[in-house]
Amino acid sequence: MTRPAGSPNVVTFVNRSSIATTTAADIQHLSRYEHQSALNEFKDQLRHQRSFLQWIISRHESLQKAKNQLDPNGRGPKDKTYRKYRWYAEQQTLLEAINAFEVFFKRSLVALAKSLKPYIPASKIKGSIDARVLWVANGSEDIESLLFEHQLFHNLGAVDEATGMLIGKKRYLPDSPQGKYPRSRIKALKGIFQIRHTLSHNQGFITTSDSTKFQIHGFSAAQGEVIDPSNDHTGRMIRQFLKEEAEGFTDWLLQESADYLRLLNQNNSVALLALHKNTIEKLLGSHPDIDNLPWT
Fold first, then answer.
1. Is residue 108 part of a domain?
2. Are 67 and 89 in contact (CB under 8 A)?
3. Fewest C-beta in 10 Å: which of 162, 170, 249, 294?
4. Is residue 56 a contact partner of residue 89, using CB atoms and an 8 Å limit?
5. Is 72 a domain residue?
6. Residue 87 lies in a domain
7. How far apart are CA 211 and CA 33, in angstroms?
8. How far apart are CA 101 and CA 145, in angstroms?
């Protein structure tokens, strides 16, 4: 097997047959722990990003201070180099934050399906016949993950379709004039996912197509320039908005889940088992409306 010259223990990628991985718990900035809800995982990731960016700033300030104390006339950390790499860190962490928000949607929907599976009939599950069969099976298949983990949730309509299937309620209705969710927040979400697209596929460079799509979503964006998360606190404001949106979505999901279960109990005499309340709290979080259900 060919190995790079001077690297006897490194296998070239073309000769590999497996992808290197590490346990999720060891990649600490992702905060992927079994005991955490989807919301807390997302908020922890934003917190790690904030700490990372602050660490970069503080290291530069410390080096600048040390240079001034030891040799005021000597060469120290270059401001232009610092700004270049800080901008790179800002861009990459913003991309990761928006990706993490889509993962938050995905993990929330998987958690919802796992929590309410005993109360959702197979007839409500859309997709193939196999999906409905697996939904009612008692085997080891993780059907909830199979249903949602492969899907893309940067389209708010897909989020609505999933919650509508599971609990009969839709939050966003992004293209409906009857939608009650604030259109300003719909606009913000569409703009943020378009930023993610531009960062991912065009390295932040705003193409003619990107500029047109931003205009469709209600934003002006200069064609030929590059998205700058450090300009006008853009990255910080996007993270703040995503945190608020994740909190609001989770609160809404728990409220509507409680309403779904309450109606099942009242109209169909379905017993609500306390064991399932524990699952909801573990995977999604606690809520007064969930507490007030007649658990047995």
1. yes
2. no
3. 294
4. yes
5. no
6. yes
7. 39
8. 17
Contacts of 266 (CB under 8 A, 6+ apart): none
Instruction: Give me the pLDDT at residue 23, please.
Output: 80
pLDDT score for 140:
47
* Alpha helices, DSSP H, located in 5-78: 38-70
For residue 4, tell me if it sits in a domain: no
Specify the pTM: 0.86
Residue 242 has what pLDDT?
Answer: 98
Tokens of 130: 């196999």
Question: Quick one: 205 exposed, middle or buried, by C-beta within 10 A (0-12, 13-18, 19+)?
Answer: middle
- Domain range spanning residue 158? 37-66+81-249
Q: Name the domain count of the chain.
A: 1
Residues of the chain with pLDDT under 50: 1, 140
- The pLDDT assigned to 6 comes to 54
pLDDT (0 to 100) of residue 293:
98
Q: What is the pLDDT of residue 81?
A: 81
